[in-house]
Amino acid sequence: GAAFAGIVAGRRDRVGLIILDRPQALNALNRQAMDAVVAAATLFDLDETIGAIVLTGAGRAFAAGADIKEMAELSYAEATARDLFAGWDALTRIRTPLIAAVNGFALGGGCELAMMCDVIIAADTAKFGQPEINLGVVPGMGGTQRLTRAVGKAKAMELILTGRMMDAREAESAGLVARVVAAAELLDDVLTMAAGIAAKSLPALQAATELVDAAFDSTLTEGVARERRVFHAGFALDDQKEGMRAFIEKREPRFTHR
Ligand code: CAA
C-alpha cells in the first residue's frame, strides 16, 4: 500500500526484513520512507511470531541522509510545525531486536537511523559520517547524542565538525559497529545472525534491549536496580525454566516465547 512506498518489507520465518528501496536517490530518507519504515517496524514489533528485524538498503547506500531536496526550502516555522524527524522516535521504542545491515553509505540521517537500531553490522565497503555541517546545519535525527555515546566525545566531535566519512574498519574500532563483513556476504550473514537471535526467548530479548537502552538514560544505580528486578521477573516465564533445564539436561532449549 501507499504507506509502504519507498521500502520493501518481508519476512523469513521469525525474521522481519525491511529494505530501503530508493537506490536512485541513495535511499535518501523522505517523509514517505520514514512513515513506511516506522509502520513496517511497528507491525513487526507487534507480531509475536517475529523475533528480530533487519533493516538494510538497496544499491550502494544504506541511506545517504535525510532527503535534502525535500527540506531545502522549508522555513523555520514549517520545520518546527511538522516537528521534522520526530516521527523517527517511534523506531527507538521498538523492543524486538532491530539490526542495521549497513551496506554502503550511512550518512547524516542514514548514520543516525543505523544508530537507532540495536546493533550495526557493516559491509567492508560501508561509509559512515555526519556531513550535515557541509550543508550549513547540524545533525537532526540524534547524531550529536547517539554518536557521542557510541564513540566518545573526541571522535564524535571531530566527525561532526569536519563532516568527513569514516570507513567500516574505523567505525568498528571506534565502537559504532559490532562486526564488519565482506559486502557480498552482508545480508546472508545478518539474516543468519537474526534467525539465531529470533530463536531465543522473545520476552528475554525484549527485556535485554530495554535494559541496554536504559544504560544511556539512567544512573548506574538505577540501571542496575532495574536490571535486577527484570532478572527476577524472568523467573515468571516458561522460557526461563526451559532454558535452564535444557542446559542441565545437555540439550538445546525449545523456547515458546512465554
Ligand atoms: N538527499 C537527497 N538526494 C540525495 C541525497 C540526499 N541526502 N544523497 C544523494 N542524493 C541523490 C543525489 O542528489 C543524486 O540524485 P540525482 O541523480 O538526481 O542528481 C543521487 O542521489 C546519487 O547521488 P550522487 O550523484 O551524489 O552520488 P555520488 O556517488 O557522486 O556521491 C554521496 C555519493 C557522497 C553519498 C553524495 O550523494 C552525498 O554527499 N549525499 C549527501 C550526503 C549528506 O549530506 N547527507 C546528510 C543529509 S542532511 C541530514 O541527514 C539531516 C539529518 O541529520 C537528519
Whole-number mean pLDDT: 97
Net shape: globular
Task: Give start-end ranges of low-pLDDT stretches.
Answer: none
Rg calc = 19 Å
What's the short version?
By secondary structure, the protein is of the alpha/beta class. It has helices at residues 31-46, 68-71, 76-81, 89-92, 109-116, 143-151, 153-162, 168-174, 186-198, 202-214, 220-233, 238-248, and strands at 7-12, 15-20, 52-57, 61-63, 98-102, 105-107, 119-123, 127-129, 165-167, 179-181. The two termini are 33 Å apart.
Structure report:
The chain is built from twelve helices and ten strands. It has helices at residues 31-46, 68-71, 76-81, 89-92, 109-116, 143-151, 153-162, 168-174, 186-198, 202-214, 220-233, 238-248; strands at residues 7-12, 15-20, 52-57, 61-63, 98-102, 105-107, 119-123, 127-129, 165-167, 179-181. A hairpin with a 2-residue loop joins strand 1 (7-12) and strand 2 (15-20). The chain is globular. The chain starts with 6 loop residues before the first strand and ends in a 10-residue tail after the last helix. The model has no long low-confidence stretch (mean pLDDT 97). The structure holds acetoacetyl-coenzyme A (CAA). The site of acetoacetyl-coenzyme A has 22 residues, from helix 2, strand 6 and helix 5. GO terms for molecular function: enoyl-CoA hydratase activity.
